[in-house]
Amino acid sequence: MLLPVGRALDIPVDVVNVSSPTFRTFRGHLRKFEDGAYEVELFEETRDLREGSRVVINWRGGAARRVSAVVSKRFGDRLIAEESKRSPPEQRIWPRLTGGIPLRFRPLKVDEDPEAWLQGAEDDAPLDAWSVPDPLMNFSLSGLRFEDDQPHLQDEDLLLCELGVAARPERWRALLRVVRVVEIPEEIRDCEATHEIAVQFERLPLEAADALTEYTLRLQRLQF
Fold first, then answer.
1. Could you give the number of structural domains in the chain?
2. I want to staple 198 with a disulfide (CB 3.0 to 4.6 A). Which of 50, 118, 128, 145 is the partner?
3. What is the CATH number of the domain that holds 40?
4. Does 63 lie in the same domain as 144?
5. Is 4 inside any structural domain?
6. Residue 136 sits in the same domain as residue 154
7. 55: CB partners within 8 A, 6+ apart
8. Do 71 and 90 contact (CB within 8 A), yes or no?
9. Rounded CA separation 18/16 (Å)
């Protein structure tokens, strides 16, 4: 969806404050787009969105895209956010949210039995075998989507992982299956990550699933 530059707009959007540990979501309307800056009128005034806050702007209804941005100005119920990166809309059965998921992972080695890792055995792989993506990622109850420098991963690869949920101190071991690896075009990269990786949970402890469910419900309640 191409936006008319400098013209008045009326596009319903959600603004997710990803600088806040609660990832609170605010509804509003996109009123203007010019020089990579989005002017959004919020349905409510809030102090949560300050200048310098990192936000994700989601077009509601799957109409267009998702934009990562930084708030550059606030005035009353309006804000100006400077774009850093855009993504296509999410199309999946399970609702996916943006949240803080601490994660480290590595590919399962040839002839390696994942059961030992899942049962808590000490790992003998070197530290540099593990990848630690930015915890600000998309997640659902069925899997994760994040960005990392992992061009060698392929669909159906199995990954050992340790993950957390938001600010909770617990860490759980799980088994992931790669379902998609897509190279990020150089012109929209805003960090060292070169690929977007989508994984599904192959094995996930019940406690971790419960924590993800609770976190999902909490974020959804904050949206309304």
1. 2
2. 145
3. 2.40.10.220
4. no
5. no
6. yes
7. 15, 16, 17, 18, 19, 49, 68, 69, 70, 71, 81
8. no
9. 6
pLDDT one digit per residue (tens) for the chain, 224 residues: 455 666 778 888 888 787 765 567 788 899 998 888 999 999 877 777 888 888 888 777 544 467 778 899 998 889 999 986 554 444 443 344 566 789 999 999 888 889 988 998 888 888 888 999 888 888 877 888 888 887 688 889 999 999 998 888 999 999 999 988 888 777 666 667 788 888 998 898 889 888 888 887 776 655 44
Tokens of 186: 């150089």
pTM over 0.90: no
Sorted by sequence, the CB contacts under 8 Å of residue 39 that are 6+ apart come out as 30, 31, 32, 33, 78, 79, 80
DSSP 37-69: EEEEEESS--SSS-TT-EEEEEEGGGSS-EEEE
Q: Domain of residue 64: give its range.
A: 11-87
Q: Is residue 5 part of a domain?
A: no
For 28, the 3-state DSSP assignment is strand
Same domain, yes or no: 151 and 203: yes
